[in-house]
Amino acid sequence: xxxxxxxxxxxxxxxxxxxxxxxxxxxxxxxxxxxxxxxxxxxxxxxxxxxxxxxxxxxxxxxxxxxxxxxxxxxxxxxxxxxxxxxxxxxxxxxxxxxxxxxxxxxxxxxxxxx
Length: 115
What we know:
This protein is mainly β. The protein contains no helices and eleven strands. It has strands at residues 4-7, 10-13, 19-24, 33-39, 46-51, 58-60, 68-72, 76-81, 90-97, 103-105, 109-114. Strands 2, 4, 5, 6, 9, 10 and 11 form a seven-stranded mixed beta sheet that branches. Strands 1-3-8-7 form a four-stranded antiparallel beta sheet, with no helix packed on it. The chain is globular, with a radius of gyration of 13 Å.
């Protein structure tokens, strides 16, 4: 059974630098390509960042490029968020994609940025 679990959200002041974490079970972790998405109130879910299974390749949405960094180790994927802005307020979701292209989502973690 696959489980994807995010952690690390909360209330942060503008300019803050929290880090989100995500674990995916059910496979060897290196078998998962990992992504972060977010959904702000009243908006559609949007892509934030992705990292390849090897960890070598990363992609970012233009809105977070230069402020967010995605990384992974043997068991977790991380999203380091720097210089947060109120418009970064959203529920952040972790997505794990297997080698057979099956995708699994976490339940999300709320990040609220106060001005």
